[in-house]
Amino acid sequence: MPCSLVSLFFDRFAIPSDLSREALLTRVLASFASIPYENLSKIIDFAEAGRSIRKQSPEAVLKGFIASGTGGTCFPLTETLIQLLQGIGFNVVPILADRRYGADSHCALLCEVLPSSWHLVDPGYLLTSPVALPAIGSAVYTLPFTHIELRRLGESDHVELHTITSSPEGSRSTYRLTYKTTPVDNHTFHSAWDRSFDWEMMRYPVLSRVVGGTHIYVQKNSILLRTTESQTRRIVAEDDFIREVSSSILVNEEIIKKALECLR
Q1: Fewest CB within a 10 Å sphere: which of 35, 82, 148, 204?
Q2: Which residues contact residue 1 at a Cβ distance below 8 angstroms, ignoring those fewer than 6 apart?
Q3: How do beta strands 147-152 and 138-142 pair?
Q4: Is 58 helix (H, G, I), strand (E, B) or coil?
């Protein structure tokens, strides 16, 4: 684990070195939540490498955030957080997840918060506080912008993630993905990362960030604003897209412009 990554992260977010183990984990994860999910930097790297695989290293993810407000997709975000947590003494392992568009199309991590007590953290889906996986049945958690339910499928290692939204008509549960909670080795993790360059989401912008309790989600030319009480979606005109996305997600306008040029 390069000490430079931990030092760079601690300096950027002014994290004291004398915190207790519990306080340190909380502070690191809260700070890491500032780094957005976005595929623009991945699209740019893919185009500049001649449409071949070029992965963001943890150092590149953090330096990109500091310089331009970028972040990464689920794989580079998870890899970066794993190395950070390992660098400060936590046991952390990667896991894979299935989404509707493919097996092993998402990833997350398990962190040993207490001895033999492993909790889920998913920076790619904005689960940036450790949550306990249900041994049986389900568990509901409240995030800053929504409620989630984790459902264990029988006695298997599969745990489904559902989001719960409220409206005047009542609550609605929506399936999102299925975690496979058996840890994977580095080769399996990176093989799934390699395959991610062929996904459809490499063909249009996707960005996500939580600001002040509001989840801002950009996909193609729409912006979704979601809180625990409401959600609104609107279409953004092409001429306004770069400015609006930059001001809401806080990614440098030149990065957005360059990614759009690569997509064209």
Answers
A1: 204
A2: 83, 86, 87
A3: antiparallel
A4: helix
